[in-house]
Amino acid sequence: MLYHMYEFQHSLFAPARYANDMMQKAFSDPLNPFSYTPGAKQISAACDVMELVTRRYGKPRFGLEETIVNGKAVAISPKNVWEKPFCKLKYFERIFPSNAKDNDPKLLIAAPMSGHYATLLRGTVEALLPDHKVYITDWMDARDVPLFQGKFDLDDYIDYLIEMIEFLGPNTHVLAVCQPSVPVLAAISIMSAENNPFVPSSMTLMGGPIDTRECPTEVNLLSAKRSIHWFKQHVIHHVPWPNKGCMRMVYPGFLQLSAFLNMNMEDHVEAHRKMFNHLIVGDDESADKHRIFYEEYLAVMDLSAEYYLQTVDVVFQKHLLPKGEMISNGRPVNTHAISKCALLTIEGELDDISGIGQTKAAHDICSNIPKGMKAHYEQKQVGHYGIFNGSKWRNKIAPKVKEFIRQHN
């Protein structure tokens, strides 16, 4: 019923949004005399903020049209090259002159399936495009996947990754941001144990929950404190009509967003207050930066209930991967089988989602990777988001990722 009430609330609030939009236009239109009255700017700014926080956000666009390669602008042509019901593999093809050779490494970015769309990694992709053939997992919103397409759980996630790596062929590199660190490590473990010829040349794990027993965060403690039965009863809901995935059991994106907002509610309130002030003084550039960030941050997707519950159980409660007890579709996940895939782990000093040491734990359980093929980097003064977006990502972290991939290409 919660999901139905959420949909009803949006419908109920629609007239107020229309009135808010009309008021904003009236008090900001230079042809309207009322826009010059005292308080008009404050009213317009308040309406603008109101629109931002009450809008229903769809899937954002990547919007990457070009990159700079060797000092020259190169056009980007995104296209889907592989597809299954719950994921599309998006390739950001760089359009070089016909006589140019593209010998850059192939890089598969495993985007998190944790409530936000893959576009959250727009900055990640943008920084890596000049030096790599970049592919990214573009996960589908579970509410848009019809029931007849079947289930999707953590084991299916691992199988998807294996299929995508095999599709890309030999000498592929994989970069996992946050949650996919676990399925990426599991997939490469399985491929290594089976002597798969397409084992990636390297894997980079960034801010991932490999072992959440290390420096547990508030998110980790909450996941461990409640039973799986509690999660089933309180956070799993049916997708309502008229969505394509009507009656599919999901963990709704709006619940995940609520959890994210509540972790730093004061910061979000302060950010919107600043936007209000920027609009009043006419600082549209600062207001637009705020708007762009929240248009991405507030766009959320539903997760398949099977995937969400299995992830909570395997990763956050039983810690099966670091214990060496994880099994995926009947196949043991033996991380010690990895010997030919280089490993780079990256953590943020201020990460409040994946604590310090949780990603680095991969080095201990991948004991057969030679020391010369392992590296760890901790970025000071960044939180979880700053690991893969922002100035420190572009100027400090991304160069280390590129150097590591080149070294093991």
Please give the structural blueprint.
Blueprint: H1 2-26, H2 40-54, E1 66-69, E2 72-84, E3 87-95, E4 106-110, H3 122-128, E5 133-139, H4 154-168, E6 172-177, H5 181-193, E7 202-206, H6 218-225, H7 228-235, E8 237-238, E9 249-251, H8 253-263, H9 265-280, H10 284-297, E10 303-304, H11 305-317, H12 320-323, E11 327-328, E12 331-332, E13 342-348, H13 362-365, E14 374-379, H14 391-407
Parallel strand pairs: 4-5, 4-6, 6-7, 7-13, 13-14
Antiparallel strand pairs: 1-2, 2-3, 3-5, 8-9, 9-10, 11-12
Helix pairs in contact: 1-2, 2-9, 3-14, 4-5, 4-11, 9-10
Structural features, described:
This protein is α/β, with parallel strands linked by helices and 409 residues long. The chain has 2 domains: 100 residues, no CATH class; 266 residues, Rossmann fold, CATH 3.40.50.1820. 42% of the residues lie in helices and 18% in strands. The chain has 14 helices and 14 strands. It has a 9-stranded mixed β-sheet with strand order 1-2-3-5-4-6-7-13-14, with helices on both faces. A 3-stranded antiparallel β-sheet has the order 8-9-10. A hairpin with a 2-residue loop joins β2 and β3. α1 packs antiparallel against α2, α2 packs antiparallel against α9 and α3 packs across α14. The longest helix is centred in the first third of the chain and has 25 residues. The radius of gyration is 23 Å and the shape is globular.
- What's the shape? globular
Q: What structural class is derived from the secondary structure elements?
A: alpha/beta
Distance between the termini: 51 Å
Q: What's the helix-strand series?
A: HHEEEEHEHEHEHHEEHHHEHHEEEHEH
What's the CATH class of the largest domain, please?
Alpha Beta
Radius of gyration, Cα only, in angstroms? 23 Å
**Which residue ranges are poorly predicted, with pLDDT under 50 across at least 5 consecutive positions?**
none
Overall average residue pLDDT: 90
Number of helices: 14
Beta fraction: 15-25%
**From the 3D coordinates, which CATH architecture of the largest domain would you assign?**
3-Layer(aba) Sandwich
Order of strands, main sheet, comes to 1-2-3-5-4-6-7-13-14
**Main sheet attributes: strand count, strand direction, barrel closure:** 9 strands, mixed
Helicity range: 40-55%
CATH superfamily of the largest domain: Alpha/Beta hydrolase fold, catalytic domain
Q: CATH topology of the largest domain, what is it called? A: Rossmann fold
- Count of domains: 2
Overall number of strands: 14
